[in-house]
Amino acid sequence: MISGILQFEFLQNAFLTGIIIGAIAPLVGVFVVVRRMSMISDALSHVALAGIAFSLLLQKSFLSLAGLNPLYIGMAFSVGGSLFIEKLRGVYKHYQELAIPIIMSGGMGLSVIFISIADGFNTDLYGYLFGSVSAVSRADLYVILAVGIVVALMLTLLYKELFLLSFDEEHAKASGIPYKAIHFIFIVMVALVIAASMKIIGILLVSSLMTLPVAASLRFAKGFKQMIGYSVLFGEVSVIGGLFLSYNLDLAPGGTIVIIAVLILILSILFDKWKNR
């Protein structure tokens, strides 16, 4: 694969995109897991799927939109889904967890409708569902790089506030932190990371890259910053190893990336048990 990366642009795009996603997905995932919001990634990925299906339907229905990049529509739907989640959390103040399954159901329902109208699956949609090494264009790489920079910058600027909200929300509210605005920014970041990850790992598996490396890091980390470091490390190993296997075995990268992440998690659990026996 190394010689291929030097030779083929599509492999360069996939590899560089994988490095970016392997860092930002677990980075955001740490806060998602600590705040016990793991299901939100599944909900927003289903909404992103609706956006992709809608984009492909538009391309099929209108020749003038044949060049429309589904990544942009997927991002728009994902961000829109995050806004609806926040709105529903305000409506169901005492049952805020209902917002996630409501949006997940709506996203899945729209996906099925759009796919049905478009007369079923095609190769493009399959790539978005399970990831594709060849699907990432140079334009996609630039968009994903921009998302990565924005997410990394926002997490750096809001680290203290997000840390406090994650571990002591009541104290954060009492201390005058604009928690609603910060939570809103965080949800939008999650939506952007999910949409940015779908071309490499696939919409149906993207939540795995946000949670599995974090779950493995919990077996090793002795502090929050260590948990972030281990999560990013395990995420990068999963993505790079998964892309390598995908290319050499002609498999969908989403599956190989997730399987490596699962193996890392299993090994971390076994190591932790061996260490504490």
From TrEMBL:
Q: Where in the cell is it found?
A: Cell membrane; Membrane
Primary residence: membrane
Can you list the GO cellular component terms from the UniProt entry? ATP-binding cassette (ABC) transporter complex
Q: Which residues cross the membrane?
A: 14-34, 68-86, 98-121, 141-165, 227-245, 251-271
GO biological-process terms attached to the record: response to zinc ion; transmembrane transport
Q: Which InterPro entries match?
A: ABC_BtuC-like, ABC_TroCD
- Give the highest taxon in the source lineage: Bacteria
| Swiss-Prot/TrEMBL keywords | Membrane, Transmembrane, Transmembrane helix, Transport
Membrane topology of the entry: Multi-pass membrane protein
Its family remark reads:
Belongs to the ABC-3 integral membrane protein family.
Instruction: Supply the name of the protein.
Output: Metal ABC transporter permease
Species this protein is from: Peribacillus simplex
